[in-house]
UniProtKB/TrEMBL annotation:
It comes from Clonorchis sinensis. It comes from the Eukaryota. This is Sugar nucleotide epimerase related K07071. Pfam families: DUF1731. Residues 232-279 form the DUF1731 domain.
């Protein structure tokens, strides 16, 4: 996990648990981890390094997600935890242009990404520990001023060159960092009625990629160029990202946080224009969600 991801994760932890949190590093081959806590989160914000070679990327994500989670679960077996939250990803669901996914959706194998997330969630489960609340937090794309996603879009969109990828009709399920923090706090509340298991940590209103790109350009006050924004062809995305990762970008999935909504959780930033205004202090026009 690179330094920026560590800082985002630490920010979430501090805002949830207070400044007594510590960011701990250990070597993966050292499976001994000592904890003195009552609440444990195992989290990797799902912002992968698209520049690493594909084979290396595959090895790194399996190692960083699954192996480290197994170490944490092993360590957690012997301590009196109240809750265990593992940050998963919406990549659990197959990419689709037409379907809407809630936590009740059945798993379908759709390549490396879905298998990775499935194995990641399985590694985090402790069926014998009925005494603790266990959640798999299926995160969407995290939006924040310093998130990888926002930083990757900013340069091209700021100068008016940001545009749709392929058809632009693929879904982007996103969430503002503030709501990630609030969801974790909500799940840890003894009064929370959210049932254990998977929880979709996405805003209620996903949007199409072309709509997100347009709203982002408005939020950063991009100039209007005579030739308009540049569309990225699908083959370019596949060439740069590889077949599995590009599928998420080219298709995506529409994910709804049904369990949170049913429990009465209120999002601070339910719509994309709300989140972008908070980040850039400029509100884009209403973003379509169909």
């Amino acid at each position: 996990m690179n330094r920026m991801k560590e800082e985002l994760l630490y920010l979430v932890a501090v805002r949830v648990f207070g400044k007594t949190c510590e960011l701990t590093h250990w070597l993966l081959e050292n499976s001994h981890v000592h904890f003195s806590v009552s609440l444990l989160t195992s989290a990797k914000l799902t912002e992968n390094d698209s520049h690493s070679p594909y084979k290396q990327y595959i090895e790194e994500v399996f190692s960083s997600r699954i192996d480290t989670t197994k170490i944490l679960v092993k360590a957690a077996q012997s301590i009196p935890l109240k809750a265990f939250i593992n940050a998963s990803a919406v990549g659990f669901y197959k990419p689709s242009l037409t379907e809407t996914f809630t936590e009740a959706a059945a798993y379908e194998d759709h390549g490396m990404i879905t298998r990775l997330v499935k194995e990641w969630e399985m590694a985090a489960q402790m069926p014998e520990r009925k005494d603790i609340k266990q959640y798999q937090l299926r995160l969407g794309v995290v939006l924040a001023e310093n998130s990888n996603f926002v930083k990757s879009l900013y340069p091209s969109h700021r100068v008016g060159l940001g545009g749709p990828v392929a058809s632009g009709r693929q879904w982007i399920s996103w969430i503002h960092l503030d709501d990630v923090v609030r969801i974790v706090q909500y799940l840890l509340d003894p009064e929370s009625s959210v049932s254990v298991g998977p929880v979709n940590a996405t805003a209620p209103f996903a949007c199409r990629q072309d709509a997100l790109s347009k709203a982002f350009s408005e939020a950063v006050n991009a100039p209007s160029l005579p030739f308009g924004p540049i569309r990225t062809p699908a083959f370019v995305a596949k060439l740069v990202l590889g077949s599995d990762r590009s599928t998420l970008l080219l298709e995506g999935q529409r994910v709804v946080p049904k369990k949170l909504l049913d429990a009465g959780f209120h999002f601070k930033y339910p719509r994309l224009e709300d989140a972008l205004e908070a980040i850039f202090q400029r509100r884009p026009t209403s973003v379509p969600t169909d």
